[in-house]
Amino acid sequence: MRPLFLAENKTLFFRKYWWELLASIPINDLLFQALRGLRIVRIVRLLRLLRFIRFLVRFRIVLEASARFAEKTYLLYIATLAAIVVMSAALGFYYLEVNVNENVNSLWDSFWWTIVTITTVGYGDIYPVTTAGRILAIALMLGGIATFSSITAAIAAYAISKNKSTAE
Fold first, then answer.
1. Which GO-annotated molecular functions does the record name (predicted)?
2. Which end of the chain is less crowded, N or C, counting CB atoms within 10 A of the terminal residue's CB?
């Protein structure tokens, strides 16, 4: 559904989506109290119902668009891969550094280091001291760049294909 300002024929829009106009009427306590004496409160309930229906219609549109986006970009698969990379690296770093590195005291420290490393922030509060930990860090850096680049590329490809389809 297109909004009113994008509709080519405004009259046809209101014939088809008449409830949009009713549902857009603001209902506050003052209006509710004024209408109560006139027994028009039933209409106010109907307007609230129409507003809820409008919300549901728009929510369905957003859900359908999100499903198309997720299907065309494989974003769910990429996010799953990213989660696996993060968890594996955190567990590996914890296993390699826990009794050797004085900065690693818990699995949370390893998880923190993994997120900081994969996003290339690198605060320096936790860093690998073993050779195996440094090799893991190199693999994580490369894997993080590849994973997050895939997410960016998927979103950009979807935006370009969406832009092409609307232009044609």
1. voltage-gated potassium channel activity
2. C
SS3 at position 20: helix
**108-115, Cβ contacts within 8 angstroms, sequence gap of 24 or more:** 111/86, 114/86, 114/89, 114/90, 114/140, 115/86
* Cα dist from 42 to 8, 38, 83, 118, 167, whole Å: 34, 10, 51, 57, 46
Those residues with Cβ within 8 angstroms of residue 119's Cβ, 6 or more apart along the chain or in another chain: 144, 148
What is the mean pLDDT of each successive set of 10 residues along the chain, which is 168 residues long? 69 73 65 61 68 86 86 84 92 93 92 89 88 93 87 87 72
**Chain-centre distance for alpha carbon 101:** 36
In total, the chain counts a number of residues equal to 168
- Spatial CA neighbour of 90 closest among 121, 117, 50, 71: 117
pTM for the model: 0.58
Give, rounded to a whole angstrom, the gap between the first and last alpha carbons of the chain.
20
